[in-house]
Please model this.
Amino acid sequence: MPSPADPLAGWSPTAFTAAGVTHDVFTRGTGPGVVLLPEIPGMSPQVMGLADHLVGEGFTVAVPSLFGEPGREVSAGYAVRTIAKACITREFAAFARNADRPIAEYVRALARRLHERAGGPGVGVIGMCFTGGFALAAAVEPAVLAPVGSQPSVPFPLGQARRRDLGMSEREQAVIAERVRTEGLCLVGLRFSEDSASPGDRFTELATAFGPGWRAIPLNSRPGNPDGIGKREHSVLTSADVEKPGHPTHAARAEVTAFLHERLAPTG
Model:
């Protein structure tokens, strides 16, 4: 995604504390609320480009600075240092299976706070890569009506059991499944087909767990695909091609935006 000249222009940071941790949350816009969780290494210009896009689509967007330096451009060394630190932080439990993660409770509390501010029937939560599963687990919170996990990668897929792990606890899974059954809740997931960091086995298990409440948006990255997507492609919603009409990432972002409008539209 193209980088804004000043990634933080117009964004107002406020400290928010929940689940025993405090992060600055950058907020801008009007309309229904969307919590946007940054991918590693943090609130990069590409992530803030997506945030600006959502503001332009008529949403109040809150971006918590969970790691890294807000506005800093991505580099290999910066990303490696950030992920190394995140991996050993109890808040994220990057390797734990069937885990109730403190960060998921933090995101749920932030969603409640944003709903109080923005109003409407509820809020959306988008997570990407390291934070993709946190967005899905946030659906335990009744105010969350539109959870989106793009290339969810936690727990890191080391071994078959972690490849199949949903990125949430059995308790969270049960609550979300009940919301699917009784409220018609829908969860959206995106991934490139050859992305080993966000394994297909995980999406299969999510489909089994949530049935009609799971909507997958797969993007073809197999060798020889007609769009020339490389097999190592990982980031869907912040892809370098997301602004190209007709490109699968552009269409995927449009589908996510339509999902947010559909689920968060004022009723009555």
In short: The longest strand covers residues 21-28. The mean pLDDT is 95. The helical segments are 45-56, 76-87, 102-118, 132-137, 160-164, 170-183, 200-210, 248-264.
